[in-house]
Model the fold of this input.
Amino acid sequence: MTMKIAIAGSSGLAQIIARYLQDTVHTTLILSRYAQPSLEQQGYQTAVVDYDDQNLLRFMLRGVDVVISTVSGNPQINLIDAAAHSGVQRFVPAEFEGPINHRPANNDPLDRGKRAVLARLRDWSHHSRHRMAFTIFSCGVFYERFAPGGLATYDIGSSTGIQRQGSYLMDVAAGTAEICERTSNGQPIYISMTSVYDLARYIVAALDLGLDRWQPEFRLRGDRRTVTEIVQWGAVVKNSKYLLETKNEFAKLTFSVQSLSITVIEPGDLRAHLEHATYYQEWAKVARVQELMATEQRRYDFTQPNLNQLVNVVPMTFWNWLSGQYPLPAS
Done:
């Protein structure tokens, strides 16, 4: 069945999703705060919107079946309200990370308004007059966090503070890493991951299932690896070997890997690192440690994806992606 899909946002992830939708029978409308002549020249239909103007949003969303959001904060809240009033059947929020039940119940430093978005969506899903369903695509960590230039290269994550190269686990190009390898009970930390391009492919493929088969949360992934494996593979693409040495500051271990130096923080020391960085107003460090704490708490991991087996998408493995980003030197 042909559907009309509105994508809110016109930057990196929105354009990637639109690119895959363009090859389907569905009609795509890109909503942007500003005119997008370059996108229109590529054959995309665009519309300029003001996310503070409910009447304009409702007008633009008339006849739309699915809204896929890549905007956050109050603009997304306003978009949700307008979509429900306009008769949109399904809303996909900008919640592309780990499973929603792996997030802290209270005082989540990485919330960034997500709790309010989910609350609004749940309200509309039970509304007596303007009922609108929603689906969250939980995909874990984007591979592209580890790309040269980080997520910023893809124009993704500008409002999160984690878009820069090296802002999560390792900076392959700079040859550094800061990780927590094991949970507080000594178990290896796993991370579920997906390329942004495979996320787009999964979303588009899910449309072929029919909206009546969509669940409130689809879990998908391209790979699932331990933090140790991820960093070891980072060392491999730097063509390095391990040498272990010990340092005492905050009981850290530092692996000197020729061109890759890895600082391992024990789970019990993460809070001390956070307090230290906060005291000295090292905000980039604060963001990195908060991400490490979330990773140790399994925020980005899940063992049972429920979308992979439903659609015909073969995702790229993390090793294939990583080695493509940092080609091994010719022998």
User: Anything to note?
Assistant: Residues 240-258 have pLDDT under 50 and may be disordered. Residues 283-296 form the longest helix (14 residues). Residues 167 and 284 are 8 Å apart (CA to CA). The radius of gyration is 21 Å.
